[in-house]
């Protein structure tokens, strides 16, 4: 076992993993086509810094247990197994049907923010904080914004999204 490097866990940030274990990038990409976005240097500087392996597994639709254990094995670490990944059986992104869940009162396209090398969290939170009960904000991205979804759900918002369509992901945030 390699004790000179950090342990790889579901909470490990993708950017930290790739900085410490650059050889794991191809293995990570093998888990899901969604991880091909790691080639984008802007995403690596922004989203990958705040996205945990647990969140990446949600985006990629893969088992966090299998992914972490494979990464650990390749890095010379012992597997963690299911007991270290609580809740791993019910990982999912809340997809809506083919229509938005409510009338949209606010919109934000975060793609230019990310392309400029910034993280859209502050802009999304600023707009979400303006929502009144019954309002619905739509934000558009090029990938499922799992870290933001987790944050917004923890703040009590209802969050859903449409399935990605031609590289566009529409996420809806409602104040209940």
Mind sketching the topology for me?
Blueprint lengths: L13 H7 L4 H7 L9 H5 L1 H4 L2 H8 L3 H11 L31 E4 L1 H5 L5 H8 L7 E6 L4 H9 L3 E4 L7 E6 L2
Parallel strand pairs: 1-2
Antiparallel strand pairs: 2-4, 3-4
State the main characteristics.
alpha+beta; 9 helices; Translation Initiation Factor IF3; 2 domains; four-stranded mixed sheet
Describe what you observe in this structure:
With 176 residues, this protein is α+β, with helices and mostly antiparallel strands. The chain has helices spanning 14-20, 25-31, 41-45, 47-50, 53-60, 64-74, 111-115, 121-128, 146-154; strands at residues 106-109, 136-141, 158-161, 169-174. It has 2 domains: 14-90, no CATH class; 106-174, Translation Initiation Factor IF3 (2-Layer Sandwich). It has 9 helices and 4 strands, in the order ααααααβααβαββ. It has a 4-stranded mixed β-sheet with strand order 1-2-4-3. A hairpin with a 7-residue loop joins strand 3 (158-161) and strand 4. The longest helix has 11 residues, at 64-74. It is elongated and about 50 Å long. Residues 82-92 have low confidence and may be disordered.
């Amino acid at each position: 076992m390699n004790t000179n490097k950090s342990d790889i866990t579901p909470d490990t940030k993708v950017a930290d993993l790739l900085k410490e274990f650059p050889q794991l990038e191809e293995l990570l990409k093998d888990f899901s086509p969604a991880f091909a976005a790691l080639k984008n240097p802007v995403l690596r500087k922004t989203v990958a810094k705040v996205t945990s392996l647990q969140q990446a597994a949600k985006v990629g639709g893969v088992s966090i247990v299998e992914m972490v254990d494979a990464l650990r094995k390749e890095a010379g670490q012992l597997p963690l197994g299911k007991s270290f990944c609580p809740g791993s059986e019910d990982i999912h992104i809340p997809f809506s049907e083919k229509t938005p869940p409510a009338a949209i009162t606010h919109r934000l396209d975060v793609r230019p923010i990310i392309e400029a090398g910034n993280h859209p969290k502050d802009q999304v939170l600023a707009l979400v904080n303006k929502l009144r009960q019954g309002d619905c904000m739509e934000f558009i991205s090029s990938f499922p914004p799992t870290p933001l979804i987790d944050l917004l759900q923890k703040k009590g918002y209802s969050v859903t999204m449409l399935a990605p369509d031609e590289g566009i992901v529409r996420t809806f945030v409602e104040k209940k």
